[in-house]
Amino acid sequence: MHDGIEQELLTLARRGVDAATRAGAHQAEVYASAERVVKVGFARNDLDTVSTARETTLGVRVFVDGRLGFATTNRAEDLPALAAEAVQLARSSPPDPHNGLPEPIDVPATGNLVEPSLLSLGPQELARMGAELLAMVRGLRDPRVPDGQVSVDTMDLSLHDEARAVASSTGVAQAFRGALASGGIFGMALLDGQPGSFSYDGDVARHPDALWPLLDASFRRFATNCLGALGAGRGESFRGPILVPAEVISDLLVGHLVEALSADAVRQGTSPFAGRVGQRIAVPGFTLVEGGAGLPGHPLCPFDREGLPRQRIALVEDGVLQGFLYDSYEARHAGVRSTGHAGGGATSLPTVSAACLSLDPGHAPLDELRRMDRGIVVTRFSGAVDATSGDFSGVVKGGFLVERGEARPVQETTLSGNLWQALQQVSGVSVETTLLQGTQRYPALRIEDISVTAG
């Protein structure tokens, strides 16, 4: 994409707002995005696809007498007709007294997050890098099972160059451009033709010099998990501790906790934390922060889906609930101000979501947390959670049973318990943390008194 594309999108968004107003909207907003994606895909241990795609998308949100209308297109020339369509949709929608667009708030200037040298990454260089990473992964071995080899089901390397802009009739006018490169890998290890447990990993970089080291580290971690799960035996059933590494914390705990701390869950009565601000919900030392415009050293777009500044929010501090995440609708409903956590894009309406999260590190070395008399190391978790009660049950895949400090791989093992009680059962937090995808940084957690059932 060319220089200044974000300002062109902002001009286009303003034109869309004017068109919607002329069509009868009492309030109007246009969110515009343009993206160029260069992608190299590998499948079944070989190069599979090479593609370059460009797309511009526009979303028009309007209100007429508190009635909502929304329409989207990928054709800029359709914008006037799209604005009229959104107005027609609004007129046939039910009114809601909390509908409306936010007033503008100054957004701190961060500049565009584009490293020019990153934009020069093309299909050939990505394919070469991918081939080298694939060979590295395929060549790794575990001394415990030297005949085992990693088989890569899918792997991709991509360059994402994106510009976005949002304008509204209330005076919001924001534009931004950012670029990043990413890679992901998914597969398993084979021993005598028999597959072990699947695993996946990946990372992102905003500078080309950082891409190889980050992907090399994450792909090696992927291979270690795959190979380590080979030769798994039967586990044991007991009630005791589990060790949750940083890579698994979101799937097992934090992702569900953040959903429960979203204002829409509170309003809809599905959050168990309604009315509990200022109360202890986790052990001392448990501090969960939504990083707003990015974690330290990893900046994001400074404004949210509605063009409001992203705010850094301590959701839980030292175990005590501090507050919830709001977009403008939920803030209006609750009689507070938006925290700048409207997520979504040009193809969707804003919804409350977190952009980046971190858990404070603890004081225990990870090796010390692994020294359990009997416990489970959770390398991958797949299960179901009741969002209101917190009851959960799911399967650990590629996990390890630790007995008197010695770990061995075990077949699929079922964990069950209650997530909200687990927040009070954290017995250790590692001093080491892991940065994931540039948007999550977590330590490892040891959680006590979880029901473990052998597969």
Explain how this protein is built.
By secondary structure, this protein is an alpha+beta fold. The protein has two domains: 5-228, 2-Layer Sandwich (PmbA/TldD fold); 238-454, no CATH class. The protein is built from nine helices and 24 strands. Helix 1 (5-22) crosses helix 2 and helix 3 packs parallel to helix 4. The longest helix is centred in the middle third of the chain and has 21 residues, at 208-228. It is globular and about 70 Å long. The N and C termini lie far apart (52 Å). The model has no long low-confidence stretch (mean pLDDT 95).
Give a quick rundown of the structure.
The protein is of the alpha+beta class and 455 residues long. It has nine helices and 24 strands.
SSE layout and pairing:
Layout: H1 5-22, E1 27-43, E2 46-64, E3 67-73, H2 79-91, H3 123-139, E4 149-168, E5 173-191, E6 194-195, E7 199-205, H4 208-228, E8 238-244, H5 246-260, H6 263-267, E9 288-290, E10 294-295, E11 298-299, E12 313-317, E13 320-321, H7 328-334, E14 342-343, E15 351-352, E16 357-359, H8 366-370, E17 374-377, E18 381-385, E19 391-396, E20 400-403, E21 406-409, E22 413-418, H9 419-422, E23 426-436, E24 440-454
Parallel strand pairs: 8-17, 16-24
Antiparallel strand pairs: 1-2, 1-4, 2-3, 4-5, 5-6, 5-7, 8-24, 9-12, 9-16, 10-11, 12-13, 14-15, 17-20, 18-19, 19-22, 20-21, 22-24, 23-24
